[in-house]
Design a protein that fits this description.
- This protein is an all-alpha fold.
- The protein contains 8 helices and no strands.
- The chain has a domain at 69-190: Cytochrome Bc1 Complex, Chain D, domain 2, CATH 1.10.760.
- Bound molecules: heme C (HEC).
Amino acid sequence: MRIKTILWVAGSAVALSACNWDKTTPGYTYMDDMYRSPAHQTYEPGTAKEPAEGSVPRGYVPYTIPNTNEGYAASMANTEVPAMYETLDAESGKQLYTQFCSHCHGEKGDGNGILMQREKILGIPGYGADKLPDITPGSIYHVIMYGKNNMGSHASQLNYDERWKIIKYVWKLRMDQVPGAVPAAADTAAAQPAA
Ligand code: HEC
């Protein structure tokens, strides 16, 4: 009986010791980190970490050939194409080509787009083998990534798959070109509204 009384008194003392009159604090708590995780300040050292070295965003495919003359030559010899390129339907790149390339290179890829007709940009080649004998899918990828002289880089406008779709379509246009043919729209340039 006495032991029970002593345990009751001691137990109550321990339990009551957690009570206090300050309503903003919980008093003594047992292992409080278990239910109140220590909050970090935004950007406190050790919170926002740099991504691990070599990380790339999801879906991003790095291109390692540099933007130099040697890099351009290397891209011509680069025969590496993604597996999906082989089975890609050329027409799947038509819409993208129309949006991003045809105003310069022309709907047919003959180098006679609207900006050429209006003489806004000159020196735009057709894709035919007579005009560009040495290009390869790898070199077209290189030119899309970095641009070339009057042609700007299109790397930020097109993702990896879109670039290859366009290349497939450009290659089809190249095959359709009749070597030595005069751009079809050359004689209709005068009919264009004044720029
Ligand atoms: C602003 C007009 C313009 C646009 C838009 C444009 N190009 Fe060009 N492109 C040029 C000019 C100019 C050249 C000639 C560059 C040179 O060799 O001086 C060229 C050259 C090329 C070449 C030949 C490069 C070589 O190796 O000689 C390819 C292939 C090509 N463009 C593909 C494309 C594709 C694909 C697109 C669309 C994603 C595109 N271009 C968009 C103006 C343009």
